[in-house]
Design a protein that fits this description.
The protein starts with a strand and ends in a 24-residue tail after the last helix. It has 479 residues and is an alpha+beta fold. The longest helix is centred in the first third of the chain and has 20 residues, at 60-79. The chain has twelve helices and 22 strands. It has helices spanning 12-21, 60-79, 98-111, 121-127, 149-162, 206-211, 282-295, 341-360, 383-392, 408-416, 424-431, 444-455; strands at residues 3-8, 28-32, 48-49, 83-85, 88-92, 117-120, 137-141, 145-147, 166-169, 173-179, 182-187, 192-200, 220-230, 241-244, 254-257, 263-266, 270-272, 304-315, 321-324, 331-335, 399-401, 406-407.
C-alpha cells in the first residue's frame, strides 16, 4: 500500500481530519481537485462558531457542534488562527415570537449550552445600538464566536504537514476501487494511489464518493448562499453576530462582523442542481438587503466592496453522516456537513481520526507537533517590533497592499511557506492582500510578480484561483 490513510477533500473538514490523524503513527495523505486548500464550501461561509443552541438534541450535529466549539477556542491558542469570542443574539420582531426564543434556549440547554439568557428589546439595543427599534426581544449567547475559515484551514494543514502528512492538489478523483486490504484511487493525472483506509470529506460531492463504493446511498443537494461584504469603515457598527429567528431554510440572513472587522450580511439558501455554480444574482442580493434591513435599517450599502456565494452540502437525512460505512470496511464518511459544519470541524476531525486509529491499531506519536507559529502580521505590531523586522528583512517595510497594509515580506512568506500560495486568491486568503476596498485593483500586478519570482510560475500562467482563471490574456486580434 502507498499509504495508510487517504483523505478525499482539502477543505476545513478534510484538513481537520488529516491534522488529528497526524498525531498517530500513520502514513497519511489528502487529495483535492482544486489547486489550493479550502476552495469549496470552506471559502464562502459565515465564519461563525455556533455554540450549539440550534441543532436538534440527540443529533450528530448537536454533539459535534458542542465539542467543536470547545476545541475551536482551545486550538486557536495552539495553532494561531484568527478567532474571537464576540457573542451573538437571536432576535424576534414580534411579541408573539418571544416564546420561540424560550424554545431555542431550552433546546440549547438540552444540547449542553450553559451560558444563555433572554433580553428585552431595550436590553438588546443597549448592547448593539444599531439594532432595529422593531426588535422585541433576543436570546443572548455570550460565548458565540467568529473565526476566519481560511486561517483555520491553513493552520490545520500546516500542522498536519509538520507531523509528516502530505497533500496532492489540483488532481480530481476519477475512479475508486475496493481492492484486497484497502482501496485504489485513480486521479485525473493518471496517478493511482493505494491506501488501507479511505476518508470521504468531499463536501457537496461526498454523495458521489460514497455511492461509488457503498450500497447505502446518500443524496446531497447543494444550497447556494449569497453574501455581501462591507468595507472596514463599518468596523464597530455591530460587535455581536445578529441572527433572526430561524425558519425552515435554516438560520436565515445574519448581520455579523468578521474576525478582521468588516461587516458581512447573508446568506440566502437556494437549492441548485449544478454543484459548481457559485454565481451571484441581483435578485438574491436584494433579498439579503431586504432581510438585513429588518435587523438594522441603517446598514450603509454604499460601503459594500464585494458580493460572493458559496455552497453548502445538505443531505436528505438532515444530519451529519460521520463514521465507518457499514457495508464497506475501512471507508469513512464525513458527509452532509452543512451548518454548523465549520463550528464542528475540529470535533469531526478528532472523531474520525480516533475511529481510524483504533481500527488500525495505530499508536499515538510520542511527541507530535501540536502547535503552529502564526504568520507574521506587520500591521498588528508596535513600531519597535516593526522596525526590528524591517531591519532584519527590508521586504517587510515595502507595503504592497495599501488597503490592508500588507508588506512584500508577508506576501513572500505566503508564497514560500508550507503549502504556499500559487494564485492571487491564495495570497489573498493567507495574508489578506487584496481583501480591502479596492479588491486587489492596485496590488495585484506586484503580487503576481512575486508569485512568478518565488514560485517560478510564468506571469501568463498565474490564475486568480483555479485552472482557467488566467489574469493575463494574449491579444490575438490582427490589427
Amino acid at each position: 500500500m502507498d499509504h495508510d490513510v487517504l483523505v478525499i477533500g482539502g477543505g476545513v473538514i478534510g484538513t481537520a481530519i488529516l491534522r488529528y490523524l497526524s498525531f498517530y503513527k500513520l502514513d497519511i495523505i489528502a487529495v483535492d481537485k482544486n489547486e489550493d486548500l479550502g476552495e469549496g464550501t470552506t471559502k464562502a461561509n459565515s465564519g461563525i462558531v455556533h455554540i450549539g443552541y440550534d441543532p436538534i438534541p440527540g443529533t450528530v450535529k448537536a454533539r459535534m457542534n458542542i465539542r467543536g466549539a470547545e476545541l475551536m477556542k482551545e486550538e486557536s491558542r495552539n495553532l494561531g488562527f484568527d478567532y474571537k469570542v464576540n457573542g451573538a443574539m437571536v432576535v424576534a420582531f414580534r411579541n408573539e415570537d418571544l416564546p420561540r426564543l424560550e424554545e431555542l434556549m431550552e433546546r440549547g440547554r438540552k444540547n449542553g449550552v450553559k451560558n444563555m439568557r433572554l433580553l428585552s428589546g431595550e436590553e438588546a439595543r443597549a448592547r448593539e445600538k444599531n439594532l432595529s427599534e422593531e426588535v422585541k426581544g433576543a436570546l443572548f449567547l455570550p460565548d458565540s464566536a467568529i473565526v476566519c475559515p481560511f486561517s483555520l484551514t491553513y493552520a490545520l494543514a500546516e500542522n498536519a504537514v509538520a507531523n509528516g502528512a502530505s497533500f496532492t492538489l489540483g488532481k480530481k478523483v476519477e475512479k475508486i476501487e475496493k481492492i484486497q486490504d484497502g482501496f485504489a484511487v485513480t486521479l485525473s493525472s493518471g496517478e493511482r494511489i493505494t491506501t488501507k483506509y479511505l476518508v470521504n470529506a468531499a463536501g457537496v460531492y461526498a454523495d458521489e464518493i460514497n455511492n461509488a463504493l457503498s450500497g447505502n446511498k446518500i443524496h446531497i443537494t447543494a444550497k447556494r448562499g449569497n453574501y455581501m461584504l462591507f468595507d472596514s469603515v463599518t468596523k464597530g457598527m455591530f460587535n455581536s453576530t445578529i441572527f433572526q429567528l430561524p425558519g425552515k431554510e435554516g438560520k436565515g440572513v445574519l448581520v455579523t462582523p468578521t474576525v478582521h472587522g468588516n461587516l458581512m450580511i447573508g446568506p440566502t439558501s437556494i437549492p441548485i442542481s449544478d454543484k459548481s455554480d457559485t454565481s451571484t444574482f441581483p435578485e438574491d442580493l436584494e433579498k439579503i438587503k431586504e432581510c438585513a434591513l429588518k435587523t438594522c435599517p441603517s446598514i450603509p450599502f454604499r460601503n459594500v466592496i464585494t458580493s460572493f456565494s458559496g455552497l453548502r452540502a445538505h443531505e436528505d437525512g438532515d444530519d451529519f453522516i460521520i463514521g465507518e460505512c457499514p457495508d464497506v470496511p475501512g471507508f469513512y464518511n464525513a458527509a452532509g456537513i452543512e451548518s454548523p459544519g465549520l463550528s464542528s470541524a475540529l470535533a469531526i476531525g478528532e472523531m474520525v481520526a480516533s475511529l481510524i486509529a483504533e481500527k488500525a491499531g495505530a499508536e499515538r506519536k510520542e511527541n507530535p507537533v501540536t502547535t503552529r507559529k502564526p504568520p507574521l502580521r506587520m500591521k498588528d505590531l508596535d513600531m519597535e517590533e516593526r522596525n526590528r523586522h524591517i531591519k532584519e528583512n527590508p521586504a517587510y517595510g515595502r507595503i504592497v497592499c495599501r488597503c490592508e497594509e500588507i508588506s512584500e515580506g508577508e506576501i513572500i512568506d505566503a508564497i514560500t511557506g508550507p503549502l504556499g500560495a500559487r494564485s492571487l486568491d491564495g495570497v489573498k486568503r493567507r495574508v489578506r492582500a487584496g481583501m480591502g476596498r479596492c479588491q486587489s485593483g492596485f496590488c495585484s500586478p506586484r503580487v503576481m510578480e512575486l508569485i512568478s519570482q518565488y514560485a517560478s510560475i510564468p506571469l501568463e500562467n498565474i490564475t486568480k484561483n483555479s485552472k482557467g482563471s488566467l489574469i493575463l490574456m494574449e491579444d490575438s486580434y490582427d490589427l
